[in-house]
Amino acid sequence: MADEVFIDDLIDPDGAEPIAYNWDEEFQRHILSVLLVDRQFLLQSLDLIKPNYFTNKAQRQICSILFEFFKKYRLLPKRDFIVQEIKSAISDEKSLAFYLGEINTLFDYFEPGLESRDYLQDKIAYFAKIQAIQTAFHQCLKFIDQSPESEDTWIKVYEKLREAMTVDRNFEIGIDYLANLKDRYASSEEDDENFEIFPTGFQDVDTSITNGGYCKGEILAIVAGSGVGKSVLMTSMAADWLIQGKHGVYISLELDAEKVAERFDAIVADLPIKTLHQNKEEVIERVSNFMSSNPAEIPLIIKQFPAGTADVNTVRAYLSQLKFHGFNPDFVVVDYVGEMRDIPGLPTHESRERLVRDLRGLATEENIFVTTALQPNRISKEVQESKYIDENHLADSFGQIRPLDGCISLNQNDGEKTVSVGRGYVIKQRDGKSRFSFFLDFNPETLRIRQLSKEKYKSTMAKHFEQASDETEVDSIPSSKSTKRRKKMTEEDKVEQVVKKGWEPSEPDNN
User: Fold this and answer.
1) Is pLDDT of 341 > 50?
2) Fold assignment, 8-165
3) Where are the domains of the chain?
4) CB-count burial class (<10 Å; 0-12, 13-18, 19+) for 345
């Protein structure tokens, strides 16, 4: 694979000298370092870059290995693979040290922060377009010199110039609908055996989704007010995915990474979070036993970025850096959009919608499942008293819901918070039912959030209502607009009031 050949087709048509980048070596190194870790960047650059464009001979060889490996396996080669190919091709110890040194430099050169990604892609594309036009121009002159008055000559000139003008970034071809009909169904049967889903853990929600959960390439958002539990729910779901053998990244833009880790400890060990340190031996044992079924060497990485400093490109660059270390996550939790860096020059509502859209794009590009959270607006607190937070109550931007594959709100009024229960509401579900509610049990000690039966919810609320109004006369539902009467409420009345206040789940629909 690593034979050092690739000169002939890169010679200038006039026989002058090989085509090469005129940028300095550091700039070329920056390009190659991104090619090594960013699959999308590499895919779009395959036909725009030739290994011999690089002026450093080690970079030329590394680029050649990278391109050949990717074309054959459609995967990015790990550092060890490139090292092995270089060792197989270079026998001289002194030269080998030079090549291996350049490999290490390239992999260490990359840093998070791919804001320059588009800039680099433009530079590569412009260089390739210029070379294509120059090559086509020289070839056209030869055609004209040989037979200037032939109609075939001008057909060739037109085709060469047209071909040169189409040089641009590459993209995956996509699916030929009819030609791939049988292949799609054959491959889908194979995929079903190894199909990865990401369930929420709420039975009513998961059974309403076509596949029984979310898939890679999709994004789910949790909406809840401060302190209700959107971050806790994402941690709880992530813990369940880990035990299923998946591995992921939890990116916190709000809470310290150590605090996030403690939340995982409480959920995984099923112990009160306040007692973790005094029961550390038990925590270690339970977490170790819990994770023993996960085959991943590193099942979870928790990373904190300061609030307001990270955007989607930062996340993309960070994931690329993780690949340097051989870590390719199945899911990424971003906690949360409201703490991400807004896109400069855009109003807040447009920026937030773009951030959610770009996170969805990242999920597709990296073939991962993304979960994040959204903040509701001020009136959502009043809404939760008897109804549900929906798309009309999103803070900053209504448009945030458009790119989402799923959106669930957590609803909890003061009475429910007292007895640690609440209500979930499926605002949107792209691939299943939506617009229905379900009941929740919040465990403030172990931080688990689980689905609760309607009967258990009603009895819990009725008991709370009884304790709150014991030996006290309370206002009942008004019998008319102008008249109120007072009476002693029975147990049945209290349960009925729970239902009348809107805490009964609505019927699901297919919107």
Assistant:
1) yes
2) DNAb Helicase; Chain A (1.10.860)
3) 8-165, 193-452, 461-503
4) exposed
